[in-house]
Specification:
This protein is 40% helix and 15% strand. By secondary structure, the chain is an alpha/beta fold. It has two domains: 164 residues, P-loop containing nucleotide triphosphate hydrolases (Rossmann fold, 3-Layer(aba) Sandwich), CATH 3.40.50.300; 67 residues, Conserved Hypothetical Protein Ylqf, Chain: A, domain 2, CATH 1.10.1580. Helix 10 crosses helix 11. The radius of gyration is 21 Å and the shape is elongated. The structure holds guanosine-5',3'-tetraphosphate.
């Protein structure tokens, strides 16, 4: 399988983010807990130089708890402040306030020494499409809709959400594009549904997922679909098709339909809590 991306709007988004980042103290970067590296764009490291950095392992409800903890430790070792969040149901979201205070401790202390008291920390959310930025902002901001805009020193038209007396959040997230010179990165993004279906062959994609699961989560498909896992992914998919009654004319198995069911089950966490890349093995 070969993946391509559209560099078109990337330049504009990057330019906008460069401007926005000048206004803030802390970058809150969302990654998908199932693929913390493949869902991260390394450009942000350069864009966010000299800013406090927070990584949110979002959608941790869909990832292996053990691997998510391992990724948390991995990012902390790299100097990030890290939190696990499920933006959809809100779990872990409140804790982000505490993490912001920790991440900005030095800045707050510096302000205090200069006699600047109670200046709120300014934050912005960034991440690749579909990682959960809007869901997180809605959950984090809750009812705090007191928007403040057009302040002196603030670019005209920027809207800030005043979360409390300590934190102001830029209301529009910065969009990063995934970098997938590495085809494995493209594959993992496709697994979680971050690449448009139209450009993918869903059945080929499901073979790759079956191969990955049979190797790294042996038995999970057998358990979920009550089938035998075969060495050849086509045969495993055929077994899923038979079990799920996916048939086409002439009583032949409808593999495309079975593949859609499999991908949908996987993306919605119905096969289990599955992490697709592992610290120590897949890190660059
Ligand atoms: P974006 O702004 O970064 O592009 O992402 P957005 O918030 O639109 O979220 C993309 C999808 O991810 C949404 O699902 C959203 O509900 C889901 N999502 C966000 N955070 C979490 C999380 O922590 N856990 C889980 N399981 N899902 C999360 P959708 O299919 O587009 O919509 P819907 O089915 O929720 O209506």
């Amino acid at each position: 399988m070969h993946f391509q991306w559209y560099p078109g709007h990337m330049t504009k988004a990057k330019r906008m983010m460069q401007e926005d980042i000048k206004l803030i103290d802390v970058v809150i970067e969302l990654v998908d807990a199932r693929i913390p590296l493949s869902s991260k764009n390394p450009d942000i490291d350069q864009l966010a130089q000299n800013k406090s950095r927070i990584i949110l392992l979002n959608k941790y409800d869909l990832a292996s708890q053990q691997q998510t903890n391992a990724w948390k430790a991995w990012f902390e070792e790299k100097g990030y402040f890290v939190a696990l969040v499920n933006s959809k149901n809100g779990s872990g979201v409140k804790n982000v306030h505490e993490v912001i205070q920790q991440a900005c401790k030095e800045k707050i202390e510096r302000d205090r020494k200069r006699g600047i008291l109670n200046r709120p920390v300014r934050a912005m959310v960034v991440g690749i499409p579909n990682v959960g930025k809007s869901t997180f902002i809605n959950s984090f901001a809750g009812k705090a809709c007191a928007k403040t805009g057009n302040k002196p020193g603030v670019t005209k038209g920027k809207q800030w959400i005043k979360l409390n007396k300590n934190v102001e959040l830029l209301d529009t997230p910065g969009i990063l594009w995934p970098k997938f010179e590495d085809q494995l990165v493209g594959l993992r993004l496709a697994f979680i549904g971050s690449i448009k279906e139209e450009i993918l062959n869903i059945t080929d994609l499901s073979y790759e997922l079956i191969k990955f699961l049979q190797k790294n989560y042996t038995g999970i498909l057998a358990q979920k679909y009550e089938i035998t896992e075969e060495e050849d992914p086509l045969l495993t998919l055929t077994n899923i098709a038979a079990k799920r009654g996916c048939k086409q004319k002439g009583d032949l198995p409808d593999l495309d339909k079975a593949a859609s069911i499999l991908m949908d089950d996987f993306r919605n966490g119905r096969i289990g809590k599955i992490t697709l890349e592992f610290p120590g093995k897949d890190e660059k």
